[in-house]
């Protein structure tokens, strides 16, 4: 079972390193040249970077264009949507309430949100704690589109989230897998609002933006035209649509390089100097404690409390990224070095650029002196109990995509994903196979807990697990459910659904008419089906309990034909 090193837990509040690192002009020139190179190559449109060290911003700079039409340049005061980095504010807001004695991380969510009454699948339970919301372990459905609908009143709509989610099923028991979950963080933000007696917008303003002098930071996208200082966002050369949604606590905040420098420094001041800029050191250091060591379906990634945990040259960074509507962001904070970096861009195509630049800067910061932590990341099993040998099996694997593994007469394995070329698999160790012909080092890694695997990309694992297909015998009762279901909503992102049966694979398949994706289903009972696999967007329950009706994805569908269109 995964576990953080004893050393790390003993020195979670370690005093500052004696390392004298600071970005010098050579480092800044190297970073700037790399950013300019990415811009010149058309990899992104504009970029803002903030680096802090020892209470001082050592690099605050804008590159490229905030708006290609007006030729407005990016500056340290240009506003970008930081997207899911907003979740770190939610976590720290919850810790503020913990510090005030108003809740505990292990409180039941239902204690503070009595109108949240989700449905429970047979043989499952409905236990959810506040901690579960902040660590993506709650089992709340993630394949739920209601939260992405445009709204002009996000604070008012947020108050309805508990009731809306009560009309859906928990997809698995808490602690089954860390499945990235915007809905859970939306509920956590609602919980903060309910306990504090303030709207989420007002809470952010009074507890973060005003005291930290984050004067150009907003809780969400305002109605009407973009703010004058805000970067336009793009996908390639096309503008991205932009709107607010009710899930503002999961990804709504708009900020600048200057303001994010203040935010990172406040975290570091609280951590290293017990300044109470946000919360006492004894509380804020908890965000680095690994929360997913007990979860068998998780891979090598380490999930802290609302932050991810990353390793750099013997140092541990707390981190989060963000991606929404053409804005991409990345933040690393290394407390022992009193260091933080934030990078953001305004083009969907710039996601790799943001990650690479942030990682480059963090490597520069950490390589001058070896840190006190071991560099080995968590593994699925402890050293005292080595993993049992796993063998890849041919067959149909279900998840966010359908994947077919076949064994050739020569004994080699190949992989087929519909719409893609057949790829050869080369075994590289006891539980992983490299996919030949992919850009970079892409592998499938077998899971210990079930017959399935996850992907790894250049050593970074994907959170989604593909499980061996659970076959289904088509009964007369199930056959009645097959057909074409029309969605009853004006939301343009949701299309109709077809429920089909494949005799070849003995599989029930849900097909998105608009988007073309296919999900393998398993039977929960005669009126409930569930998407197979584990992870974000997986596990969605299809409820057929009303005749000729389907409830799924947060919407109602009406059966209009038994014939497949």
Automatic annotation (TrEMBL):
Signal peptide annotation: 1-22
Limits of the Beta-lactamase-related domain: 33-351
Regions of compositional bias (Polar residues) in chain numbering: 376-385
InterPro entries noted in UniProt: AmpC-like, Beta-lactam-related, Beta-lactam/transpept-like
Disordered as annotated region, ranges: 369-388
Annotated protein name in UniProt: Beta-lactamase-related domain-containing protein
PANTHER family: BETA-LACTAMASE-RELATED DOMAIN-CONTAINING PROTEIN (PTHR46825:SF9), D-ALANYL-D-ALANINE-CARBOXYPEPTIDASE/ENDOPEPTIDASE AMPH (PTHR46825)
Native source species: Pseudoalteromonas luteoviolacea H33
Keywords: Signal
Annotated transmembrane regions: none
């Amino acid at each position: 079972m995964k576990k953080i090193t004893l050393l790390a837990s003993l020195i979670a509040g370690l005093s500052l390193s004696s390392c004298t690192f600071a970005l010098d002009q050579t480092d800044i020139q190297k970073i700037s040249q790399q950013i300019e190179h990415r811009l010149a190559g058309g990899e992104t449109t504009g970029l803002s970077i903030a680096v802090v060290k020892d209470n001082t911003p050592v690099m605050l700079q804008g590159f490229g264009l905030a708006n290609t039409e007006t030729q407005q340049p990016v500056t340290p005061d240009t506003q970008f949507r930081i997207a899911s980095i907003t979740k770190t504010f939610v976590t720290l807001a919850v810790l503020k309430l913990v510090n005030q004695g108003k809740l505990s991380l292990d409180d039941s969510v239902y204690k503070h949100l009595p109108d949240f009454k989700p449905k429970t699948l047979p043989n499952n339970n409905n236990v959810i704690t506040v901690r579960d919301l902040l660590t993506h372990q709650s089992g709340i459905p993630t394949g739920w589109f209601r939260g992405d609908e445009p709204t002009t009143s996000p604070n008012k709509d947020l108050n309805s989230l508990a009731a809306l989610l009560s009309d859906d099923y928990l997809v698995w028991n808490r602690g089954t897998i860390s499945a990235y979950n915007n809905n859970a963080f939306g509920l956590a933000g609602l919980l903060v609002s309910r306990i504090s007696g303030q709207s989420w917008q007002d809470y952010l303003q009074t507890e973060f933006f005003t005291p930290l002098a984050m004067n150009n930071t907003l809780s969400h996208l305002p109605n009407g035209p973009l703010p004058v200082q805000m970067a336009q966002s793009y996908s390639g050369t096309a503008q991205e649509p932009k709107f607010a949604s009710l899930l503002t606590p999961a990804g709504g905040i708009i900020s600048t390089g200057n303001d994010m420098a203040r935010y990172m420094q406040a975290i570091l001041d609280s951590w290293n100097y017990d300044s109470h800029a946000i919360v006492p050191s004894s509380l804020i250091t908890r965000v680095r404690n690994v929360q997913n060591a007990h979860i068998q379906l998780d891979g090598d990634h380490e999930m802290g409390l609302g932050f991810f945990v990353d390793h750099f040259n013997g140092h541990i960074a707390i981190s989060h990224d963000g991606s929404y509507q053409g804005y991409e962001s990345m933040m690393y904070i290394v407390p022992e070095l009193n260091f933080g970096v934030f990078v953001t861009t305004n083009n969907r195509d710039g996601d790799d650029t943001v990650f690479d630049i942030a990682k480059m800067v963090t490597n520069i910061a950490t390589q001058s002196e070896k840190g006190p932590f071991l560099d080995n990341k968590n593994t699925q099993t402890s050293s005292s109990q080595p993993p049992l040998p796993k063998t890849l099996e041919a067959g149909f694997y279900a998840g966010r995509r359908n994947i077919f593994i076949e064994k050739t007469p020569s004994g080699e394995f190949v992989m087929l994903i519909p719409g893609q070329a057949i790829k050869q698999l080369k075994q590289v160790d006891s539980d992983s196979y490299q996919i030949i012909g992919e850009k970079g080092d892409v592998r499938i890694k077998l899971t210990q807990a079930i017959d399935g695997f996850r992907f790894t990309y250049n050593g970074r694992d994907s959170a989604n697990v593909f499980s061996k297909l659970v076959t289904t015998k088509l009964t007369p009762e199930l056959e009645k459910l097959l057909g074409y279901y029309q969605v009853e909503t004006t939301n343009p992102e949701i299309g109709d659904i077809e429920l089909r049966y494949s005799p070849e694979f003995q599989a029930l398949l849900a097909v998105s008419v608009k988007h073309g994706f296919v999900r393998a289903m398993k039977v929960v009972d005669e009126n409930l089906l569930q998407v197979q696999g584990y992870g974000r967007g997986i596990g969605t329950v299809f409820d057929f309990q009303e005749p000729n009706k389907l409830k799924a994805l947060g919407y109602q569908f009406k059966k209009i034909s038994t014939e497949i269109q």
